[in-house]
Amino acid sequence: MATTLPTVKHLIDGQQVAGGTRSQDVFNPATGQAEKRLLLADKATVELAIASAQAAFPAWRNTPPLKRARVMGNLKVLLEQHADELCAMITAEHGKVLSDSLGELQRGIENVEYASYAPELLKGEHSKNVGPAIDSWSEFQALGVTAGITPFNFPAMVPLWMWPMAVACGNTFVLKPSERDPTSTLRIAELALEAGLPPGVLNVVNGDKEAVDTLLCDPRVKAVSFVGSTPIAEYIYSEGCKHGKRVQALGGAKNHAVVMPDADIGNAVSALMGAAYGSCGERCMAIPLVVAVGDAAADAVIAGLKTEIAKMKVGPGTAHGMDMGPLVTKPHLEKVRGYVDQGVKEGATLVVDGRGLTVAGHADGYFLGPCLFDNVKPGMVIYQEEIFGPVLGVVRVKTLQEAMDLIDAHEYGNGTCIFTRDGEAARYFTDNILVGMVGVNVPLPVPVAYHSFGG
User: Fold this and answer.
1) How far apart are CA 129 and CA 133, in angstroms?
2) pLDDT more than 90, % of the chain
3) Using DSSP, how many helices (H) and how many strands (E) does the chain show?
4) Is 284 a catalytic residue?
């Protein structure tokens, strides 16, 4: 007899709502088994959420900032009290180990705490006698209905970047989380209601492109924030701006770590292990590239990484002592494996091959062991493109200048760390490279803000 999966609905006007005729499964990546059935919102369902937010806006906008801030303070306490529950939800749907889930949630809680300071942040300015008998004053005005479209890799943290500050400032919000791991996002929204957020101020709709396009086109939505891949960021930005919205579109990255000859290799290797393989590499600010200045530095880093990788425990995120869990979906697993195959084909040296990893009792899980490449060259696909998996590549260069030139030339080279005992290298980067990266450092069909913060 077939088992009926629990249904994940939408949260509109403070109530669970079943909207849309289409649905899809939500999988546990550690087992490869479907555990929930997610309803995908159609245009009418999203419009219902927008209407709820629009109706709630006048009263919420006129609610004193102190009272709005108290809701954020209450929510912070509830998030801390329900941390174990929320982390279990994140791990069950994303796959990351519980310690990574807790770290994500903690970052989100910090954003909620920051939003609780809104009364101080919302103070305007007054200038007397700016002209003859003329005073000047300014104030912050809420926009109205705002929206967020968030990615799978941080289902708690990234939404908490967006909506707490938006609603603390008097806006109302429609959130569309990733359809791959929506449950923790919905649960946090329920806790917000428990914290005192009025119905309609925050609405959550699950969906795909139909839901996204409705948010982008509806004139009642005044601003949209997005985090995800670069092609979708470009689409969100162009479509949102075309419909007169304020848009924040955060796209992809390909971050570099420069290891200088005088670096503390042990410290560098320790940092790289977390930066490359933490959360299975599914982080926008992961470090997928090491630029080693000199063969001695490269050899030492690779030797250290091989030793540490051999100690890693890979398995279900709920198991004790695991360092890395599975990738989020089977298609994403196949995509990342394809990048490893491509790297070998293009001539990079695969020092550690995680493709043959098996996890006892989890044959259908989406597991890939940590992979390490040496002799990665600019122009290779694994150098140019964002892999979003546990794949680290080492590029060998002879000088710091060569390393800096590589980073400056890379389409997505927006995040960099430098391991050295000499602070001059970091100063050079700050003065000569980072300054040139302010704003957009790559040619694109539309302007897209590439972020260098967050996960």
Assistant:
1) 6
2) 85
3) 15, 18
4) yes
Give residue 385's identity as a one-letter amino acid code.
E
Average pLDDT over residues 135-155: 95
Residue with tokens 């970091």: 426
Q: Do residues 150 and 158 lie in contact, with contact meaning Cβ atoms separated by under 8 Å?
A: yes
* Contact yes or no for 248/224 (Cβ under 8 A): yes
Nearest to 312 by CA among 298, 324, 325: 324
Catalytic choice (169, 284, 371, 417): 284
**Mean pLDDT of the 77-90 span:** 98
pLDDT in tens, 241-280: 999 999 999 998 899 999 999 999 999 999 999 999 999 9
Calculated CA dihedral for residues 260, 262, 266, 268, nearest 10 degrees: -30
Query: What b-and-e string marks burial along 293-328, b requiring 16 or more CB atoms within 10 Å of the CB?
Result: bbeebbebbbebbeebbeebebbbbbbeebbbbbbb
Q: Is 281 left (phi over 0), alpha (psi -120 to 50) or beta?
A: left
pTM over 0.85: yes
**Cβ(48)–Cβ(140) below 8 Å:** no
Structure tokens at 431: 């003065």
**Maximum Cα interatomic distance, the chain, rounded to a whole number of Å:** 84
